[in-house]
Amino acid sequence: MNYQDLNKQLEAERKLQQEIAKLETIVKAKLSREALTRYGNVKAAHPELALNLILVLANLINQGRITEQISDAQLKEFLKQLSAKKSFNIKRM
Fold first, then answer.
1. Number of domains forming the structure of the chain
2. Distance CA 41, CA 4 (A)
3. Is residue 28 part of a domain?
């Protein structure tokens, strides 16, 4: 990998971080104090889950499907839905 490729990769990563920060700002404005604390804890412990949560909530806010403040209980419900593992039933015939 040469210097130009590395520079392009770093620039792309910087742009991605800026987009995530914008989405995070939008979502944080809608979170209650308790929900914001919970989000901080999730972000520290499970960064991928926190990113998925931000993407989903920002999408719902931009669509106008979330207009009021998100409570801690509502945030917990979103987290349950995002982290639910799909189970498969395999039946032998």
1. 1
2. 37
3. yes
